[in-house]
Amino acid sequence: MRVLFCGDVVGKAGRDIVAKAVPALREKLQLDAVVANGENAAHGFGLTPKLFQSFLRQGVDIVTLGNHSFDKPDINQTLETESYLIRPMNYPENTIGKGFCIKEINGVRLCVVQLLGKVFMRPIEDPFVQMDSFLKTHTKGKDYDVLIVDFHAEATAEKVGMGHFLDGKASLVVGTHTHIPTADVHILPNGTGYQTDVGMCGDYQSVIGMTVASAMPRFIPGGQPGRLSPAEESGTFCGVVADIDVKSGQCVKIFPVRIGAYLENTHEI
After folding, report:
1. Count of alpha carbons within 13 Å of 231, Cβ hemisphere only?
2. What is the helix (H) or strand (E) element at residue 185, kind and residue range?
3. Contact at 8 Å (CB) between 144 and 111?
4. What does DSSP assign to residue 265?
5. pLDDT tens digits, residue range 108-153?
6. Which residues does the annotation mark as catalytic?
7. What is the band of 222 on the pLDDT scale with cuts at 50, 70, 90?
8. Rounded CA gap, 141 and 80, in Å?
């Protein structure tokens, strides 16, 4: 199974490049499935039902969220009713929505789990404990064939730790949230594909997707921070592709995808 994971989609620039890139990449790379993190799609903060549906029309199979899961109140019903929209699994018990989903694609059961990090983030249930509990109640072969984990976290060390924690248990572990693509795309010793952060789909002439003008007062002494505004000029698509052996669940090949302005491109569409 060949899966594309799209990094955090930020604002209109991100939505536009995803709408252009995903259909083209599905055909060019012969993708079986596409997963995208959509928690910043609605003007940088949250996701709306309309935007979720647009991702599905563009060829995205499963959409994950993150710490901005509930920024748009009208997404609550969608989280309850849509099978392929998930929020972090380690939100408190009884939180609206689901922390994982399983979708059968060409006879292969693809399971996607999302977790939220604890380090430098708001208090949350322990992601390692939650993931361990999940693995005790859901097993490869019986419940799913391929397992992908989106770890939405701030600290690189915590993300690397999750990668090693799940090495040999998950097919692919990808980090999201920090919006900068890391150069450590590789396969861990026991067969799990890994990248610390996939990057973002958005305008890189920015401060992690927000305009320089709105972000800089937060860093400069004496600045007057206001509301952050997404940069919405030229977008760049960032993602990672993993080839997964369905029988073993191991990643056998992994490579980054970058298309668009500012960053060095890996592919053309």
Report:
1. 21
2. none
3. yes
4. P
5. 999 999 999 999 999 999 999 999 999 999 999 999 999 999 999 9
6. 68
7. confident
8. 27
